[in-house]
Design goal:
18% strand
């Protein structure tokens, strides 16, 4: 195994992989305990900010400082090598998630082989069945990706406390804000029941903003090429457009491209279709990987 100094995020520390793991299996194991009556603790503002700052330090290549920042809230950075791709990722998450009452604050995965260029966000793992696996496939599909995944079922905890796509007081939102403020375009993957939008297989939206319309058009074309019926929310009224999505609103306010993509249950749960969906999404992330990142107002 090469011990050469890495060039991506976290490069102020030698390569210390914990071993090869199948990232798909790791995420499946992580989310296997998510359920509606699962544990979730609301994070204080200082905790949310500490984790977001830690992720920012990691992206800037200051891994030791990032670890120090994260350790104050019992988070840590682990280095994993994905057995499917051979790529190294930093995994940011709880020191332990096996306690009787998990906090449910989620994880962040950062490609260590390239500077961060884009994010894929999974706000409703398990609740939107298999979107967590779709997120992994998207992360694997292009270099420079960051995956942010929620740490609990959207109905865990009290009320809508864990519905991270519609709350600004979560670790998920704090990390996504950090990425948006750095100018990283993002896509958020969701799922819908087939009978809630029977005329469509996919609903693609730019959320509250318009900056990602070219990427949305390219994505819709790629999806149509796979014979799927696509509702393009920038061109017509669609169900589940994601206009109230708080991460999308932040991106719109900052002028950063954002895509909100809903996939039918049939696509998400069929044996072969999720990979085809990831390949279509990859037409966008590959383009993002090739572009320089510009901080808003920078």
């Amino acid at each position: 195994m090469s011990l050469s100094r890495p060039t991506g995020p976290g490069s102020d520390r030698p390569n210390t992989p914990t071993g090869a793991v199948d990232l798909t299996r790791r995420i499946s194991d992580y989310t296997s305990g998510f359920h509606e009556d699962g544990g979730y603790r609301h994070p204080a503002r200082v905790e949310r900010q500490a984790i977001a700052r830690g992720v920012g330090l990691l992206l800037d290549g200051h891994r030791a400082q990032a670890q120090k920042q994260l350790s104050g809230v019992d988070f840590e950075i682990r280095t994993l090598t994905d057995s499917a791709t051979g790529r190294r990722y930093a995994e940011v998450g709880d020191r332990t998630e096996r306690g009787p009452a998990p906090r449910g604050w989620g994880r962040v995965y950062v490609d260590l082989g390239a500077p961060a260029h884009w994010s894929v966000q999974v706000p409703h793992p398990v609740a939107d069945s298999r979107t967590e696996q779709l997120g992994v496939s998207v992360l694997r599909g292009a270099r420079g990706g960051v995956m942010v995944i929620a740490g609990a079922h959207r109905r865990a905890g009290q009320g809508d406390a864990a519905d991270v796509a519609h709350r600004t007081d979560t670790v998920f939102d704090a990390v996504c804000d950090e990425l948006t403020e750095r100018g990283l375009p993002g896509m958020q993957v969701h799922g819908f029941a087939d009978d809630s939008a029977p005329d469509y297989d996919v609903i693609a939206s730019t959320g509250e903003g318009e900056r990602a319309r070219p990427e949305g058009q390219a994505l819709a074309d790629a999806l149509r090429a796979r014979t799927w019926r696509v509702c393009r929310a920038w061109a017509r009224s669609c169900p589940l457009e994601g206009r109230t999505n708080v991460q999308g609103r932040k991106a719109a306010a900052e002028g950063v491209p954002f895509l909100h993509v809903e996939f039918s249950n049939t696509i998400r749960t069929s044996p072969a279709l999720p990979q085809r969906a990831a390949e279509a999404l990859g037409t966008v992330t590959a383009a993002w990987s090739a572009k320089p990142v510009h901080r808003p107002n920078g």
